[in-house]
Inverse folding.
């Protein structure tokens, strides 16, 4: 999936991660951030991952989001091949409630950072917001859209405080 001149590259280890990672795509779309999303696995298609990451900056990508479940090596391998910010999203996976993905994404050796988000859809949403926040540092119009998104969220949370039986 691709919009024009993508600034954010979303990689996921399997198509089975897409249901969760749609939250990243939807949030970026809501903020008007151009992105692309691809299935690429450090285990199953390592050459595709390396090729993508090495060409990302030259193609205009500014932030990478890497999502994987189980033995989640994708984000770490991406980070090892680029100085672009890499945000890791651990997938809940098929066992261990995603703790395996979380730990294998977050526990990077010093020198090769992966900004690791929460497991699952919350992490997928927040990866988009963090990517947008990074891009907004140099994009005043995006900064305004991000502030409006946050304001709407606050207003919804306040409006939710009208409990009845
Ligand atoms: N952790 C990785 C990597 C990787 O780290 O490169 N590649 C695929 N996977 C993960 O394997 C899980 C099961 O994949 P399948 O559903 O295709 O069997 C997915 O969550 C995927 O991210």
């Amino acid at each position: 999936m691709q919009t024009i001149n993508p600034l954010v590259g979303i990689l996921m280890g399997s198509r089975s991660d897409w249901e969760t990672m749609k939250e990243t795509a939807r949030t970026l779309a809501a903020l008007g951030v151009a992105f692309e999303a691809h299935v690429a696995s450090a285990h199953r298609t390592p050459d595709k991952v390396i090729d993508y990451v090495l060409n990302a900056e030259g193609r205009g990508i500014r932030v990478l989001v890497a999502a994987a479940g189980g033995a989640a090596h994708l984000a770490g391998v991406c980070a090892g091949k680029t100085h672009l910010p890499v945000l890791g999203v651990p997938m809940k996976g098929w066992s261990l409630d995603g703790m395996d993905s979380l730990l294998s994404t977050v526990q990077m050796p010093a020198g090769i950072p992966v900004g690791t988000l929460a497991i699952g859809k919350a992490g997928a949403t927040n990866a988009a917001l963090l990517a947008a926040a990074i891009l907004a540092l140099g994009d005043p119009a995006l900064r305004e859209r991000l502030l409006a998104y946050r304001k709407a969220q606050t207003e919804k949370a306040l409006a939710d405080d009208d409990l009845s039986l």
User: Anything to note?
Assistant: The longest helix spans residues 140-159. The pocket of C2R is lined by residues 12-14, 16-17, 41-44, 68-74, 91, 93 (CB under 6 Å). The mean pLDDT is 97. The CA atoms of residues 7 and 61 lie 4 Å apart.
